[in-house]
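Translate structure to sequence.
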């Protein structure tokens, strides 16, 4: 803990075939379990997003994407909101992470279990 995220290729992490424009971690609300409800609208205004970062100069090629550690802002990236640390991840809670836009294939689901992040199967 905290979890680290690395890109394996565009088909797994984004519906955009070449570039990474943002990375978000989302806590799904219990009242809206469907993917479409969780990712509705622009991620900058989505109340389900608990942490969001983006490259300062816009999209970057996937092969240039850094390993992202939850709560740490990579060099050349910025966070929204601009201040404060993201909330601590909660034991037993599932989260979504990735560059969602509108494709379910663009995210992974993980859960905090025994103090470690594990992929939901």
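Result:
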């Amino acid at each position: 803990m905290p979890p680290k995220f690395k890109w394996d290729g565009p088909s797994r992490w984004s519906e955009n075939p070449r570039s990474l424009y943002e990375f978000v971690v989302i806590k799904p609300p219990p009242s809206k379990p469907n993917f479409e409800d969780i990712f509705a609208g622009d991620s900058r205004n989505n109340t389900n997003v608990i942490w969001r970062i983006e490259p300062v100069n816009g999209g970057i090629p996937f092969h240039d994407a850094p390993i992202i550690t939850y709560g740490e802002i990579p060099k050349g990236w910025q966070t929204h909101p601009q201040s404060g640390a993201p909330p601590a991840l909660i034991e037993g809670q599932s989260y979504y992470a990735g560059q969602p836009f509108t494709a379910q294939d663009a995210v992974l689901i993980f859960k905090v279990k025994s103090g470690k992040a594990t992929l939901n199967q």
